[in-house]
Design brief:
Elements lengths: L2 H27 L3 H10 L3 H13 L3 H10 L3 H15 L5 H14 L2 H5 L4 H8 L4
Helix pairs in contact: 1-2, 2-3, 3-4, 3-5, 4-6, 5-6, 5-8
């Protein structure tokens, strides 16, 4: 019977999730946006990433801070953000944040580099009608 072992594993995962949520909350409160972005991306939370982006843009010189943070993300994280912003862009409440992130990606990534992103073709096709 492995039920008890599976329950313990599920409980451990849930506790780890709660700890990461608390850490994310603390990072946002401390305005450590790069780490907050990385953690939200690793948790696969598009809405939380959007919340971090909105918090950055509310800061004085928010666009510059957003650029600094997006540029410092790893390639896989940028790919995840690109996938997230496709969804954000379809909602008029979030399209400005999506456009700000997209502008940063287009400004700081070489076209050849962008073409190597996974899912770039479908992302562009999805972005065109709303952009």
């Amino acid at each position: 019977d492995v039920t008890e072992i599976e329950e313990k594993e599920a409980q451990a995962k849930q506790e780890e999730q709660i700890i990461k949520e608390q850490e994310l909350s603390n990072l946002l409160h401390e305005k450590r946006y790069l780490k907050a972005l990385g953690l939200a991306i690793s948790l696969d939370r598009p809405h939380t990433v959007l919340t971090v982006v909105k918090a950055i843009l509310k800061e004085p010189e928010g666009r510059r801070h957003l650029e600094e943070n997006i540029v410092r993300l790893r390639r896989d994280q940028k790919e995840a953000v690109l996938a997230f912003l496709v969804t954000w862009n379809t909602n008029s409440r979030n399209c400005h944040e999506a456009q700000a992130v997209m502008e940063t990606l287009l400004k700081h990534e070489a076209p050849d580099s962008l073409l190597q992103f996974s899912g770039i073709k479908s992302a562009v096709e999805s972005l065109l009608p709303y952009t």
